[in-house]
Specification:
The protein is of the alpha/beta class and 266 residues long. The protein contains 10 helices and 11 strands. The strands form 3 sheets. The chain has a 7-stranded mixed β-sheet, with helices on both faces. A two-stranded parallel ribbon has the order 8-11. Strand 6 and strand 7 form a beta hairpin. Helix 4 crosses helix 5. The chain is globular. The relative contact order is 0.14.
């Protein structure tokens, strides 16, 4: 197998379903930061990576598959949350007719990897932070005998002899300053927008200054996804991203989308 071209997909999820018909015109439309961070890591590793945001384009499954195949990717990554898992699986099944390897990542695959891998259309899951894991997986897939090496990659799930195998969980990144800024150059960020009450001026860019939350609120899955570990970026690193974004993209506002804000990580 030769992996050179990687496509990352934010699958269809109609605004009318997310916000009900009454509010669909006012619903939030923001880039998937996790996907953009992963794209930066893949690009830095030397792969040709593209992003297809089917939610932004308001594509259905058939339209998403058609657009995905136009890129002729060697592998496809799909990010999904629980509310959209069923549609994401249907998309994978539609794409799988072309025998393209498919990797799932995001909140739902992290929390329920066995359920996700129960679909014959899904070959791998990335559990937790994906920047290091996905690059290791792509590199292994380019080896002569990748199946023998999958077990050495921390933080993935795959199938072997019709059995689901989960490898050792990868440790959380301790230094968030070490990862590249999200690959915003791969999207048209000016087409995105928060809900009307969340900004004063466009264009707005979403950003995070930390990952995780130490609390275990019953209504939130953050502590399960991030293992109750709260890790912050340095002030200098955050300011550098703000300045870089303003110079490159002419942004007028920053929308911080941390799981929690303003507590100490010490």
């Amino acid at each position: 197998m030769s992996i050179k071209k990687v496509l990352l997909i934010n699958p269809p999820f109609p605004m009318g379903e997310r916000y009900q018909k009454s509010f669909k015109k006012a619903g939030t439309s923001l880039p998937k930061l996790g996907m953009l961070y992963v794209a930066s890591a893949i690009e830095e590793a030397g792969y040709d990576v593209r992003i297809l945001d089917a939610q932004l384009e308001r594509y259905n499954i058939a339209e998403t598959t058609k657009a995905a195949l136009e890129f002729s990717p060697d592998i496809i990554g799909i990010t999904t949350e629980t509310a959209n898992m069923n549609r994401s699986r249907l998309l994978a099944e539609d794409i799988k007719r072309k025998k393209i390897p498919i990797v799932f990542g995001g909140p739902h695959p992290t929390l329920l990897p066995h359920e996700v891998l129960s679909s014959d259309a899904i070959d791998f899951v990335v559990i937790g932070e994906g920047e290091v894991t996905i690059v290791e997986l792509l590199n292994v897939l380019n080896m002569e005998n990748p199946l023998e090496e999958f077990s050495n990659i921390k933080g993935i799930g795959f199938k072997k002899d019709n059995q689901i195998v989960l490898t050792e969980r990868r440790d959380r990144l301790k230094n968030l300053d070490s990862i590249k800024f999200p690959a915003r150059h791969l999207i048209d960020f000016k087409r995105y927008h928060p809900s009307p009450h969340q900004y004063k001026q466009l264009p707005v860019m979403n950003m995070t200054t930390s990952r995780g939350c130490p609390f275990t609120c019953s209504f939130c899955s953050s502590s399960n996804i991030w293992e109750k570990k709260y890790i912050v970026r340095s002030v200098d690193n955050v300011i550098e991203e703000i300045v870089d974004s303003q110079k490159r993209y002419g942004i007028k506002e920053i929308a911080f989308w941390d799981d929690i804000w303003g507590i100490s990580d010490k």
